[in-house]
Amino acid sequence: MNAQCSNVSAWGLCWCVCSGTITFPSLSLNFGLNSRVLMFLGQLERLNGEAMLADAEIARQITAKILHLIQTQGENTKPLYLPNVVNNTQHLLTVGGGRRVGVLVSKGGTGILLQMLLSASKEWPPSEELMLQLHSVLAKVGPKDRKFGVKARLNGALNVTVNLLKQNLQNPKLLLPCLQVLRVYSSNSVNAVSLGKNGLVELMFKIIGPFSKKNTSLLKVALDTLGALLKSKTNARRAVDRAHVPVLLYIYQDWHRNDTRHRHMLIRKGILGCLKNITNIKLGRRAFLDADGMRILYNTSTECLPVRTLDPLINTSSLIMRKCFPKNRLPLPTIKSVFHHQLPHIPAGGPVAQLYSQPPGVDDVVDESDDNEDAEAENDTENEEDKDLHAQNDDIETDISKLRPRETPSRPFEELKIYERFFLELSEDFQGFNFDNPKAAVIDPVTAPKSHCSITVPTAQGLPPKYPTTAPLQGERHLAKDAQPPRLTGVVCPRRGGVGEESPVEEGAEEDGDEGAVLEVPDTALLLPLHDPDLYVEMVKSTRSVPQYSQVAYPDYFGHVAPTFREHILERVYGVQRTKIFQDIERLIHPNDILDKVVYDLDIQSSPVVDDGESLKFNSQFESGNLRKAIQVRRYEYDLVLNSDINSNHYHQWFYFEVSGMCVGAPYRFNIINCEKSNSQFNYGMQVLMYSVQEAIGGRPRWVRTGADICYYKNHFSRSSIAAGGQKGKSYYTMTFSMTFNHKDDVCYFAYHYPYTYSTLKMHLQKLEALRTPQVYLRQDILCETLGGNGCPLLTITAMPESTSNDQICQFRNRPLVFLSARVHPGETNASWVMKGTLEFLMGTSPLAQSLREAYIFKIVPMLNPDGVVNGNHRCSLSGEDLNRQWQSPSPELHPTIYHTKSLLQYLTAIQRAPLVFCDYHGHSRKKNVFMYGCSLKETVWQTNISATSCDLHEDLGYRTLPKILSQIAPAFSMASCSFVVERSKEATARVVVWREMGVQRSYTMESTLCGCDQGKYKGLQIGTRELEEMGAQFCVALLRLKRLTCPLELRNHAHLLDVESDFIETRCKVTSPSTYVLEDEEHSFMEEVDYSAESGDELEHEPDVADTHDNHLSDSESNSQRDALT
């Protein structure tokens, strides 16, 4: 009976292949059958040749007759034709390619083949020819059948193949197809565990071996099979327990040594693939280190570097070495900020509450549990192949009720009436106003109280007496006895005064910083009308910081003039990141070459600077500065550690620090070693910013893009489970760049982006007030005081009425409002430069500016987070929380700027004067161009699977008009990068809350790149302050066009600008998880395909044992699973 079933299955198999409209080759088959069978086969061949199986019914009838005749032959005829049937099936699949295999799978051919294999295995001895042919066919079919692993396991085929392999280890002819099938079996994680228990791992190590020119194809398949088996943690532990790691390293060395012509790179890569999978577990990494694997792979990779075609070996070796590099703790006593600010009360929950709840003495840098290996249960899911390959984005809001504006006010009007005083323009009647001399009649704006401890700019520390650097300020107030006077930081020997003139050197100039001396400040008044060094110092006097900064940075004092030359996006040199990583690995291999000398440490607040005359000197003790520690690693290499945001233990991205004591022409390397984001624009052409004091004294006071060999990659420093929110094994990232200095005795500053301090804002606002013309209505209020005691400015800008007539006053009061805010995240300094461009345009004298003021009343909060800016935070305020996640329920004590800004908007909504436009200026660290995020019910629903009626989706598309206008007039703006989807993770942001709670349809976040542009006029260029300020001005122009376009008389003349419906439909978007809605303009992959960001293996240990189909690719969720590269 079994033989007859096999007969039927075999011919059914042939029919499966031919019934899918597949062309047969010539069927000159010798099955040893009688003439009637041959006659039917001839008819089938003629049908195939003449009609291409057009008459499928006739073909089926003929095949049925053949099957009947074969079944009547009995079991004794099976050996005569069954091998030939399988052999010809294999021939059909080989000639037909993937399409024929697909047809065979779809017709159930896999099950038939497995049944035939099981039946054949019951014969003794099994037919070697039949087994060879069956496994050859299965090797072709298996990769095309997603259920192949499950089918093989349920049919009992796994043991059949393993037993056959054990019996034929010396038979290469049969060994190869068996290994090919086992490779497919092992791609299923449950099968891999089962095969490992059956001894297959040990069998593989009997097959692979040292260098040999024989059976290389067989060895390659065996290594692939072993690699698939070792993806199972159980099998990896089995390999470690049996001491196979040193064996693999020895085999790899032998192949590396003997494969001098590099003809067997795939075999060498297969060995590395096995090591890569073994080292995904802690035991494997330990065994690798004990076997001196770091040195072996480092030496072999170094020898491969000159040969470009060996890059896959170098990349995989680098990945293994970095994964096995012992995890180190950050060189800090605590990951919490070195500064502390006591909060009025502690939040009930969240990371700040967790921070305050830690008992004294807890080591929050690293804890022992981070190194413990969790129990790793194997994934025994039968239907794991059914997992959706494209995960849905669960972050998109699907509750339609939350996508609609609230119908009831969130606060009673009586509570909001106190904010009426910030809207005097809505009731102003200008009675008694002198229109003949309007400027003299304007009431003085409300300003923040000045500190009684004034600020001076004393000399730099440690200068020779003959080099004076600072001048006393006029009108100083006396400092308190215990207060230290702020001073210019750094050491500099100025060579020029003004532009091109030698500065006189005064004999006997005082070195004492408290007395002060003369500093030649470049005359930039014509280039920087809003900058005044003396006024800046006056503004610093009333700025309060937690560390009580007593120094002023040169760039903030001198000012910044945008360079006239273009700064192109840096073209990445091939292999630079790999070189940097190998230099890091050398630290472990050659530890005696490492200095490990601390040269700057804010944790030692009494004397943070270590000056031995041989190392660079660092400083960050000034407004917006951020550098916690500097460690000299080699003579010209320094590891830098950033400070956490105050009342936080993370958010390391913003940096701003000073360097002095450099050698001219020396190749310095700086490594910021505690970055947290998994990707950065530093990998895509962005450079750091540098400000040279010598250049400034020479008449070129400017920040310039600089640095070579820039890259960003995961390092061997690990975050504790406390810092990672309970997750273990999370690694930090290194941002590294190289730099050569051009001037002796220079003082240079490095920054993440163009600094813009709180004191700079106050200076600019005061200068704008001084430049106000009589046509401008300008009022500056202090909205509130921050936790740190700094005022939060609120500006009101519009046009003065022409007279006190009722029509003029009515028109003045009823202008629509535009509400703008910026700098809620301190590290996004580009937002302040865009805001500066907006303010300068609004206060300008051009006809467009006057028309814009006549069209709107502008309410502007230019800096929502002054405390974070002052203290050098990247993301948070002094409360330790992201203020842009507090808009739903802000606390008046912990989030005063957000609470009162939201109250202003609630007041406007309550009096039926909600803004026409709300826009919050931000910076984006991982995308190029300038773009907007908005809110749309329709576009959000379209990205989900929820059903909604047309009534539910009724929505005015006017929210797209402003971005569309910007895309046509602003060179840096990209409409393709805009998104209007509402996500759950963003429901507490300003944009979503203002849209949902205040019903403002045009509620936006405008994101400006920190890097540059990849489209338009500025394509290929890094963005600068000139382009950012231009963007702020163009936003104003777009608002003016929006006003005109909403006028019915103008509508017909500008129909092309309002064609938003077609744009909406044509926009092709993709949604990725988590919390990221992006469009199809993501960064391209580099040529060198090595994932720099997620090869740690710590993360892998907490994942199920699902097979990985990519050798060198591990997912990076924060970078939207895009393939990153190492170049």
TrEMBL record:
It is an enzyme of class 3 (hydrolase). It is found in: Cytoplasm, Cytosol; Mitochondrion; Nucleus. It catalyses: C-terminal L-alpha-aminoacyl-L-glutamyl-L-glutamyl-[tubulin] + H2O = C-terminal L-alpha-aminoacyl-L-glutamyl-[tubulin] + L-glutamate; (L-glutamyl)(n+1)-gamma-L-glutamyl-L-glutamyl-[protein] + H2O = (L-glutamyl)(n)-gamma-L-glutamyl-L-glutamyl-[protein] + L-glutamate. Residues 364-386, 503-515, 1088-1102 have a biased composition (Acidic residues). The active site is at E1007 (proton donor/acceptor). Its main location: cytoplasm. GO terms for cellular component: cytosol; mitochondrion; nucleus. It comes from the Eukaryota. SUPFAM superfamilies: ARM repeat (SSF48371), Zn-dependent exopeptidases (SSF53187). Residues 1117-1127 have a biased composition (Polar residues). One of its GO terms (molecular function) is metallocarboxypeptidase activity. Its cofactor is Zn(2+). Residues 754-1043 form the Peptidase M14 domain. Residues 358-395, 487-515, 1088-1127 are annotated as: Disordered. Pfam families: Pepdidase_M14_N (PF18027), Peptidase_M14 (PF00246), TPR_CCP1_N (PF25571). Residues 1103-1116 have a biased composition (Basic and acidic residues). Its EC number is 3.4.17.24. Keywords: Carboxypeptidase, Cytoplasm, Hydrolase, Metal-binding, Metalloprotease, Mitochondrion, Nucleus, Protease, Zinc. One of its GO terms (biological process) is proteolysis. Belongs to the peptidase M14 family. This is Cytosolic carboxypeptidase 1. The lineage of its organism: Eukaryota, Metazoa, Chordata, Craniata, Vertebrata. The gene is AGTPBP1.
